[in-house]
Automatic annotation (TrEMBL):
Transmembrane segments: none annotated. InterPro entries: ACAD10-like, ACAD10_11_N, Aminoglycoside_PTrfase, Kinase-like_dom_sf. This is Unannotated protein. Gene3D superfamilies: 3.90.1200.10. Residues 1-153 form the Aminoglycoside phosphotransferase domain.
Length: 246
């Protein structure tokens, strides 16, 4: 592991200084680097033991369903409905690649001299071998409504501070073009990502109840409910038939 010098776009002024072309270029670089990561020959790189890719997506769905049962503080019918739809929507065949596990703008570092050149990807603790579209699903929902819900009471996400950054559909189209991989069933991965974020936040709720005022508890409960509702809305509006309902 080596030291890398660069900046993380977390400061309002840093992001505001990017012009339209730079904001678009940084977005494209974010997605192009993800596509390149997913193209790495992990066996040749000596990473064949990084994970167990067989049945990866099914395990992910089952893991988060189990985690919900362990951590839930109250009943949320939207979560139960999304879980049911995800279980019947797992693709039969998926690609295998290195998966970062938490890929987002906040987990990248950029050149000080060229704001469109990424110099490092950070926070690899969740990396494994699995379905590459789980990374795309997560980065796209972070970029969209799920990110807005989660960051509403914190510092704004960097790309929301500059109108030069494109909408989430641009990220999906860029990935499809850059990777050459079909994303026709990306809705499954987007719904799974929001479902996962709901459950992670629910897991934090018990700690919040124990250590913070009632206002924080209510705010977090509302965030979880909004995320669960978003996951169900994404599923209901999906082009994937099995996600849309009974």
């Amino acid at each position: 592991m080596d030291f890398v010098d660069g900046i993380v776009y977390s400061d309002t002024d840093q992001v505001a200084q990017l012009n339209h072309a730079q904001a678009l270029g940084a977005t494209d670089q974010l997605i192009d680097v993800l596509a390149r990561l997913h193209a790495v020959d992990f066996e040749a790189a000596g990473l064949g033991q990084l994970g167990k890719p067989a049945g990866f997506l099914e395990r992910q769905v089952n893991r988060w369903c189990t985690q919900w049962e362990k951590s839930k503080q109250r009943e949320l019918p939207d979560i139960d409905e999304v879980a049911k739809r995800l279980k019947r929507s797992i693709p039969a065949n998926t690609d295998v690649s290195i998966v970062h596990g938490d890929y987002s703008f906040n987990n990248t570092m950029w050149s000080r001299s060229d704001p469109t050149r990424m110099v490092a990807v950070l926070d690899w603790e969740m990396s494994t071998l699995g379905d590459p579209l789980t990374d795309l699903g997560m980065v796209s929902v972070y970029w969209g409504d799920a990110g807005e819900i989660m960051w509403r009471n914190r510092s704004p996400q960097p790309h929301r501070l500059n109108p030069g950054f494109p909408a989430g559909d641009h990220l999906l189209a860029r990935y499809e073009a850059s990777s050459g991989r079909s994303i026709s069933n990306i809705d499954v991965y987007r719904v799974l990502a929001v479902f996962k974020l709901s459950i992670i936040t629910e897991g934090a709720l018990a700690r919040i109840k124990a250590t913070r005022p009632d206002e924080d508890t209510t705010r977090t409960e509302n965030t979880i409910a909004e995320l669960a509702a978003l996951a169900l809305t994404l599923a209901s509006n999906s082009s994937v038939t099995t996600l849309r309902g009974s």
